[in-house]
Amino acid sequence: QVQLVESGGGLVQAGGSLKLSCAASGRTLSMYNYYMGWFRQAPGKEREFLAAISWTGGRPSYADSVKGRFTISRENAKSTVYLRLNSLKPEDTAVYYCAADRSIVVHTTADMYENWGQGTQVTVSS
Fold first, then answer.
1. Do the bridges between strand 10-13 and strand 120-125 make them parallel or antiparallel, or are there none, so unpaired?
2. What is the pLDDT of residues 4-18, one digit of tens each?
């Protein structure tokens, strides 16, 4: 079992930036390979994949809708994954979730991720 805690959300004007953090804990983190993913969910919409990265290396994966604007990174020493959000638009307003998937391949659908954080709200004003 992995516990995830997101932080860093808030209110920002269009064109601005935010950096979200996801602190992970749990004894199985060091026992298996995990992919860490970021998703978001706006009111009335399905949960949307944004980006994913493995703790052990390899190239990150991005949804086409955010490629070039969002950047996922990790800091293994702190067991923390980040999502940098640049050039934010009002349509980026949503609750942003961090998730962990015990896997050796990347998955881009929410149902493949076993562990979820509580989410952090990002609101972009026009």
1. parallel
2. 999 999 999 999 999
